[in-house]
Amino acid sequence: MTVLGLSRFQFAMTTVFHFFFVPLTIGLAFTVAVMETIYVVKRKYIYKRMAQFWGKIFLLGFAVGVVTGIIQEFQFGMNWSNYSRFMGDIFGAPLAIEALLAFFMESTFIGVWMFTWNRFKPGVHVIFIWLTWFGSTCSAIWILAANSFMQNPVGYGINKKTGHAEMTNFAAVISNPQLWREFPHIATGALMLGGMVVVGMSAFGFMHKNADRAFFNRSIRVGAIIALIGSILVIITGDLQTLEIIKDQPMKFAATEGIYEDLKSPAPWMVVGLINEGAHKSAGLEIPGMLSLLAFHKLYGGTIQGMNTLNQQFLGERGKIIKNGIAHPEISNYYVPTNVLFWSFRFMAAVGFAVLILAICTLWFTRKSKNTLADSRWKLWVLGVCTYLPFIGTTGGWLITELGRYPWIVYGLQTIADAVSPTATVTSLLITNIVYFLLFCLMGGVMIFYSRRVLHQGPEPDPQTATQPVTEGSHVGAHAANRKVALA
After folding, report:
1. Which of 2, 29, 84, 381 is most buried by its number of CB atoms within 10 A?
2. What's the pLDDT score for residue 321?
3. What's the CA gap between 119 and 112, in Å, rounded?
4. Which of 213, 486, 476, 198 is nearest to 359 (CA)?
5. How far apart, in whole angstroms, are the C-alpha atoms of residue 331 and residue 335?
6. Helical spans, DSSP H, in 43-121
7. Given this model, what pLDDT does residue 320 score?
8. What is the pLDDT of residue 330?
């Protein structure tokens, strides 16, 4: 155990856990906003019940996400103080804007949305949840602006006195090509995740003995449509991001494909394989010409550099990375953790296509002419278990993003080894790792427990038989009385 290893493990654990809730919050906010918008347009009360019910899951995810985000920020000062000093001038502006504008906006309108259901007309109230979604999406943009600098530093200068990076061009930082390839992929992935969570939880909801079938049937169809659109867009944006990575971070791309030797077109694509990181070799099942199509969208005209060539190239340009006059074995070359990237990419891509197929199947099995989903327990179990699929996909994406720039924490400027706090100790990190692990288990357990509880309690009773008078500005009973809720 070393300070560097424990610091990396702690940050990876915190980031992965926190990133469960970021796309969940964005995706569910969008899904709830769509449900409430349909209510405003169609004036069918069931959509208001859907917005309120799934809004409870959204609020749970938001609360846990805030706590994990705070824990993550602690680590910049505790375990990564050298990084914070080096990057402070760059990180400061995007994070300040994120906190003062985007997060403030998101938090404010969540509260307004929660407590004003009967105080505003439906057409006004729905604006609050859209502003909440907009705030959470903007928040992601500013966080990713900082992260994109770490992937592709632009608009900066190095202060010769302090050795720290300083922002010289704010416009360049926020127009970083990495940002505008990374953000669409994450935003559309969040839609896919949010839709799939509604699909999976609705499937579990169907299995409850007192399930409101009409409610869950409409919920599962709305969720499936959003998951379907999200999965198509996430595949397209993922392809665009890969084109940028080939140009800016070729070592990361080569690792995701397990390529050690240069490949000329038409290059084969290794579907699955065995990677020997020590011998720098790989072998597996290949599809001829497929990689050229994926990487360049054509069979001929492109050469893919392997990691062996890239490592020699980087060593020639920058030499061995040395810390305190000693070339550390783990950073004496520029190879990245290939096995992790290779399999993370395949899991991530497989999840995208799996959700696409699941969404299509869900819409087919719940079609109006022949709805067979609610009475088929094996189909419901499959959908229910697949609730967790998008979380695996997003985790794979983050592993590729963060590990793919190894050994750099800021690409080409600062190594991970140089970023760790000089005052951190193995003992303190070991204790905090255990505490964080237990804390995350507790928060994850609480999230699952209360989500399950909300699901079993079900939505608010259907007021279709209610006889209360309709009043302007009130949602309750406005369009629900004497209306039979039909299956979609």
Report:
1. 29
2. 63
3. 10
4. 198
5. 9
6. 45-78, 81-97, 104-115
7. 67
8. 53
How many whole angstroms from its chain centre is CA 342?
A: 19
Rounded Cα distance between 67 and 1, Å, is: 28
List per-block mean pLDDT (blocks of 10 residues) for the chain, which spans 488 residues.
89 91 94 97 94 95 88 84 90 85 90 93 96 94 92 91 90 92 94 96 90 92 97 95 89 95 91 93 93 88 89 81 54 86 95 97 93 91 95 94 90 88 91 93 92 89 56 40 38
Tokens for 9? Answer: 């493990």
The values of phi and psi at residue 167, to 5°, are -75, 130
Q: How many helices (H) and strands (E) does the chain have?
A: 16, 6
Residue 420's nearest CA partner among 434, 407, 437 is 407
Whether 72 contacts 439, CB under 8 Å: no
**217 HSE (CA, 13 A, CB side):** 18
Q: Distance of CA 96 to CAs 103, 132, 234, 455, Å?
A: 10, 19, 29, 37
The C-alpha torsion from 293 through 294 and 295 to 297, rounded to 10°, is 50
Which pair of tokens denotes residue 30? 């969008």
Tokens of 79: 């375990």
Phi, psi at 304, each rounded to 5°: -105, 120
Global pTM? 0.89
Q: What is the DSSP string of 24-55?
A: HHHHHHHHHHHHHHHHHHH--HHHHHHHHHHH
Tokens coding 66 = 């805030």
Place of tokens 């604006």: 127
H/E stretch holding 385: helix 377-385
| Nearest CA-CA partner of 381 in 171, 113, 199, 188 | 199
Residue 474: what pLDDT?
41
- Whether residue 72 contacts residue 16, with contact meaning beta carbons closer than 8 Å, is answered with no
